[in-house]
Design goal:
By secondary structure, the protein is mainly α. It contains 18 helices and no strands. The protein is globular and about 45 Å long.
Amino acid sequence: MTAAWVAGSVRSRSMTRRRLGVDELRRLAGEPSLEAALALLVRTPYGHDVRLDMSLAEAQRAVHDSLVWNVRVLGGWVPRAGAALLRVLLAPFEIANVADHLRRLRGEEAPAPYHLGSLATSWPRLAAAGDAGGLRAALAASTWGDPGGADPDQIVWAMRLSLADRVIAVAPTAAPWASGAVALLLARGILLDRPDLTAGARLSAARVVGPAAAAATSLPELRPRLSRSASWALAGVSGGADLWRAEARWWARVEQDAFALTRSPRPGPPVVLGAVLLMAVDAWRTRAALEVAARPDASSEDLDAVLDETVLPGAAGVSRAVA
């Protein structure tokens, strides 16, 4: 193990202390207004980007800006192989940048892109595209691959499904989370609204959950076609209203496994992976806590679902399967 991995692992564990944690998140969500919640949040590590005068959407975006910044800082501590790992972990923010760029191309307002720096996959080239066709061509020439169409929704869905395959290639440990994420995406597309998937998008999904599952057109078709490594994510899902709870349980599973990774006795990629995921879980929960504080109709049940630290029965965690 190189000195860079040792330094990166030590730094990774240290950075997990920047998380708010469940108790602080309950306090944040319990504030009587968004303004009060922001006054609390700016005194935490998220104050790097959060400001008192922000709207809910701006504050939630700023929470993710802080996460991106922390991962970029960590990138200066790890060796080149570690940078490749961090790059794929920040890829969801590149997808967000592309989705926002497509909105701007349609003449809609969109927030400024996330600043990914050297951990961008292809963003500088993608940002230069002047229309959806040019964006498709830029994606085809990149690690993302050809989305198979120039329809904006098809582009974003193709990138989301492609990402899971990339994650598994760089971090095989993450296979159960990536598989579960694809299962949730496919279920969301079936139960809610999704463009017709391109051949490329279906191929990406097939590489993760198998061609039969990728071709399913209903939830009863999808569920039995998934492997155990993916089907756990859909436990209890019978309709669109169940998806947000399933997403919360997905994050809880990721958190449990990430804790196990950071406690690895040897420094290296598992420690770095676990630390970034713990920070990502905390950012997701912080965004949700802000929304609870900002919504007068929010219930304690909403918050409990977000802060639930349990996993689904039968979900094999890292401690049992080195997931």
